[in-house]
Design a protein that fits this description.
Elements (H helix, E strand, L loop, with lengths): L4 H9 L3 H8 L1 H27 L7 H5 L7 H10 L6 H12 L14 H36 L4 H14 L3 H14 E2 L2 E2 L14 H38 L3 H8 L4 H12 L1 H17 L2 H6 L5 H9 L4 H29 L6
Antiparallel strand pairs: 1-2
Helix pairs in contact: 3-6, 3-16, 7-8, 7-10, 7-13, 7-16, 8-10, 9-10, 10-13, 11-12, 13-16, 15-16
Length: 348
């Protein structure tokens, strides 16, 4: 090879760096697209939350009076106080302008800022749904991987059958059943757990922690029983899709044990669908589970939403709905942003 040919080879190799730069710049574009989509979704939720709940029948001002005899002048004064006498378009612009600054108005029934009520109830919801989230996610992934790896065995059929059965049971029905059996007691079986609430009252320190944990058992058991099946089935399905791949055959040919092949190779590559589900469920921990919190009288955001909906307390309902939807949208966007870290092909 002559010296004159060398520059030609260099010139042929240099353009190869171009595609790598373009691939590296794909993630910022991918990130910007996902963030912009999330922003549009939040604006859509803001608009929807205003108009949707105004379709609920009933007059919130009359509901606030508790059925007492109130003059027309007093009703008009209430409507002026809460801005209900303004035209709908004016109410909408005022609501959007304040919501963009984090002000969702004043609750009709509590006469307190909506943000304060949400902040007050949020830790209780995170305690309940966060505890359940950790348990049913870990249980679902563990049982899902074992079922997929032992596909067709008795254990696999039992796991998937039980998961499908529990996942199809309404959470409020299962909660009521647990209250009847384990709280009230049935036959020779005495009641062992509280029927509802978060605490018995009058306890401090470690005794208070134990009391709250005692109240947590049944609502957490209800959520875990209903929710773990979805994680199990998604994990199992994703792992089954990976099990026929050539790289697993190569790993076995190298002499790796089945346990190492599953943990180091199969499971990490089957995580994308499960990651989506985990982030969506993580967003739902903020929303709480309205029916479960209502059944067990848990003082969280779900119970607060049900209570506000019965009035209807429009500012509180709108604020809670926006927080619930925003949590899911944000977590779903974070899942989209994590995808390229697990599989770079996603951002291309």
């Amino acid at each position: 090879m002559t010296a004159d040919a060398t520059p030609a080879l260099v010139e042929e190799r240099e353009p190869a760096a171009g595609p790598r730069v373009r691939k590296g710049s794909a993630y910022p574009r991918y990130l910007a697209g996902k963030v912009a989509g999330a922003a549009v979704s939040l604006l859509a939720v803001l608009v929807t939350s205003f108009f949707l709940f105004r379709l609920i029948p009933g007059d919130p001002v009359k509901t606030m009076t508790g059925g007492r005899q109130v003059s027309a002048e007093q009703l008009a004064a209430y409507r002026r106080e809460f801005g209900l006498d303004l035209p709908l378009w004016r109410q909408f612009t005022d609501y959007c302008g304040k919501a963009l600054t984090g002000d969702f108005g004043t609750s009709y029934q509590f006469r307190a800022p909506v943000v304060d009520k949400i902040t007050e109830a949020l830790p209780n919801t995170l305690l309940l749904t966060g505890t359940a989230f950790v348990l049913y996610t870990a249980l679902g992934i563990f049982l899902g991987t074992r079922s997929a790896w032992r596909r067709g065995t008795v254990g696999d059929r039992v796991n998937t059958g039980l998961a499908l059965t529990l996942y199809s049971i309404p959470s409020f029905w299962l909660g009521l059943l647990l209250i009847i059996v384990l709280s009230v007691g049935i036959g020779p079986l005495p009641g062992m757990f509280p029927t509802g609430g978060m605490e018995s009252g009058g306890k401090e320190g470690f005794a208070y922690v134990l009391d709250v944990a005692h109240h947590l058992v049944l609502p957490v058991a209800t959520l875990v029983a209903v929710e773990y099946g979805q994680t199990l089935l998604v994990t199992r399905s994703a792992l089954l899709d990976e099990m026929g791949s050539d790289y697993l055959t190569t790993a076995r040919a190298k002499g790796l044990r089945d346990d190492l092949v599953r943990r180091r190779h199969a499971v990490p590559n089957a995580l994308l669908p499960t990651v989506t589900l985990i982030f969506i469920n993580l967003g739902r921990t903020v929303a709480g589970v309205i029916l479960v919190e209502t059944v067990f009288s848990w003082p969280g955001l779900g119970g607060l939403f049900y209570q506000a909906l019965s009035v209807p307390d429009l500012p509180l309902v709108q604020g809670l709905f926006f927080v619930f939807a925003a949590a899911v949208i944000v977590m779903n966007t974070l899942a989209d942003l994590v995808y390229p870290l697990l599989d770079p092909r996603v951002a291309r």
